[in-house]
Structures are given as structure tokens and as C-alpha cells.
Design a protein that fits this description.
This protein is an alpha/beta fold. The protein has one domain (5-191): Aldolase class I (TIM Barrel, Alpha-Beta Barrel). The protein contains seven helices and nine strands; from the N terminus they run ββββαβαβααβααβαβ. The chain has helices spanning 48-55, 76-88, 101-105, 110-113, 129-136, 143-157, 171-184; strands at residues 5-8, 11-14, 34-35, 38-39, 64-66, 93-97, 119-123, 161-166, 188-191. The strands form two sheets. It has a seven-stranded mixed beta sheet. Helix 1 runs parallel beside helix 2. The longest helix is centred in the last third of the chain and has 15 residues, at 143-157.
């Protein structure tokens, strides 16, 4: 059975799609059938209504997080509909994204996200395009530039957002990533590598 929602700790995670515009060398889905015991490879993508039914009262969770085995912004309309339900039942929303949402959808999606998302985690993963292309292997040649443009657009819209990098890139690249985040005008968070 497909897993559309799964709980880890106090958060509920939403698995809307398996489509992704990156093929990261370190991705948790690489060569795995499950994550934290949850089978996240989908036979079909769920409707917003199916996910909403599984969420129920969102105030039961610390956050409802769009994060599964794919890039959630491929399902922008469903995501926004689900956000309305979550906020309507007293919950908070977060998006974990590779930052390609505007590139994927063909227009600047940042204005639509204002008021829908309480936080947006953008996986920066590398301080330069060359490094990014090497470890994230984006489908779109302009993936890295699109990620930076997306972050700037979110900042302009007043959406709470931050970059994240995985600690395996090393202290020097983390420092360069921090400098880039300061230049863009948003914080940087360093995550531990998930084995």
C-alpha cells in the first residue's frame, strides 16, 4: 500500500510524489525501498483529498512537512490545498525542497507560497554551481541558479526560509555556503548526513 503520510517524532510528513529534478549522490531514497520503516515509493500520486483525509486534525502535530521520496513542488496545486486544510485545523506547515519549484512550474511560485507555508527549507548542498552539479546532478542545467533565485524570491515575499547543507561536504564548503546564504539574505542550517 502506498504511504502518503508518515509520522516521525512529533511531525507528520507528506509524500506527494516520487518525481524529482535532482539525482543527488547522497539521496536517502537511493537503493532503498523504505525510509524509517515507511515504504515511500508510490504506485500513483495521491489526490489532495486523500492526503487531507489522512491528516485529519493537523494541530496534533508539531509540523506538517512536505517531504517524501520526491520534490513536493511538482504537486504545487495539491500542496497549496493541503496547506489550507492544515492551517484551517490549527497546524503549521513546512516545505523541504530542492529549490526548483519555479523552474518546474514555469513561473515564480514564491508569491503563492506566502501565507501557505510557515517555513521553507531549501537544500543548498553546495556553495558553487560546479559542486552542486557534481553532487546533486540536476536534470535542468540552470538548477543551481534557479535555486538561488527561488531563495531570493521567497525572501522578497517575506516567507520564512533558510538554506541547508549536509555536513559531509566539509567545514570549508560549509563556511562558503554560510557566506553565500548571508549574501542571499537567509540563514544556513547544517544537517547531519542520514545513513
Amino acid at each position: 500500500m502506498d504511504t502518503y503520510t508518515y509520522r516521525i517524532g512529533e511531525n507528520l510528513y507528506l509524500n506527494l510524489t516520487n518525481r524529482c529534478s535532482n539525482r543527488c549522490t547522497f539521496c536517502v531514497r537511493k537503493g532503498k525501498e523504505t525510509y524509517e520503516g515507511h515504504a515511500l515509493w508510490l504506485k500513483r500520486e495521491p489526490s489532495a483529498e486523500e492526503v487531507i483525509a489522512e491528516i485529519g486534525d493537523a494541530s496534533r502535530y508539531s509540523e506538517v512537512v512536505f517531504c517524501g521520496f520526491g520534490e513536493p513542488t511538482y504537486r504545487l496545486d495539491a500542496m497549496l490545498q493541503i496547506c489550507d486544510h492544515v492551517h484551517g485545523t490549527g497546524g503549521k506547515t513546512r516545505l523541504n525542497t530542492n529549490g526548483h519549484g519555479s523552474l518546474i512550474n514555469g513561473f515564480d511560485i514564491a508569491p503563492l507560497l506566502r501565507g501557505h507555508l510557515d517555513g521553507v527549507n531549501i537544500s543548498l548542498n553546495a556553495p558553487t554551481r560546479e559542486e552542486y552539479d557534481k553532487i546533486c546532478r540536476p536534470v535542468h542545467r540552470e538548477g543551481y541558479a534557479a535555486l538561488l533565485d527561488f531563495a531570493r524570491a521567497l525572501r522578497r515575499e517575506g516567507v520564512n526560509c533558510w538554506f541547508s547543507v549536509v555536513d559531509f561536504i566539509g567545514e570549508e564548503k560549509v563556511a562558503l555556503s554560510r557566506a553565500l546564504a548571508e549574501e542571499v539574505g537567509i540563514p544556513l542550517r547544517v544537517r547531519e548526513m542520514i545513513e
